[in-house]
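go over this record:
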Amino acid sequence: MFRILEDLYRRLRRIPESIARSKHHSINQRLFDTSLDLILVVDRHGNFLRVSPSSATILGYRPEEMVGRSAIEFIHLDDLDNTRNEMRAARRGRLMRNFDTRYIHKDGRAVTLTWMGVWSAEDQQHFFIGRDMTERLIVDERLHRAQRLEVIGQLTGGIAHDFNNLLAVIIANLDVLRRVRKDDAQVVEFAGEAAEAAVRGADLTRQLLAFARRQPLRPERIDLNGLVSGITKLLFRTLGEQIASRCRLRRAIPGSSAGRLCDARSERYRGGNVAGGDEPNL
């Protein structure tokens, strides 16, 4: 890109303005006209002298809408100081500059451009080629997101493993409690419900571990009636007395079907009716 920039700049300097605008333009003008990158010729004050047609694709402005105007009108406010510093450094003798600047698209969004610039002391002009980095930034963001998900998976695996150990202790103690207080029906009932909830929690942690380790899940056919009935008492107790609750189940449910769960907590403080089960329209 550096060699192309230098060569194109030298050739454009040799082309009189009348020839550059003629229909029978040279290979240099064709490069200028067909470049996918944004090419700008700017005076020392930051005013656009020439703008390549690619401006319409990259920024939404036609070249004639930009020529004669100041770059300040198009550069993102937060990037103005950096751009000015780069242009000053170029004029102090550092001919080739590489930097990023966000321009404002005609529709208002910011477009990040990676620039390569040359300063001509003889012509008192800056010559820039800017490459749109939008797609590259999107790809980088997707990569970073995938990396974050991988880290989350590793963290989830560690938490799920520790939580599974805690649940094992809880389940064991609940089993002991049921045996010790087997004569107290209420204690046995509560301990049994708590143990069932802990077992379901252990099943969830196993799924989290499978996700974290990228292991395939092993789907199993389950008795939905039994599963729903097992959590009914706990669910109704959680909703409170102000919610009238009922659960209707079919006699036989295919193992692959599932009832729809209702978010009853949103109704808790307003009162109302909550229905659950696998009948249609529930």
In short: The chain has three domains: 2-132, 134-218, 220-282. The radius of gyration is 35 Å.
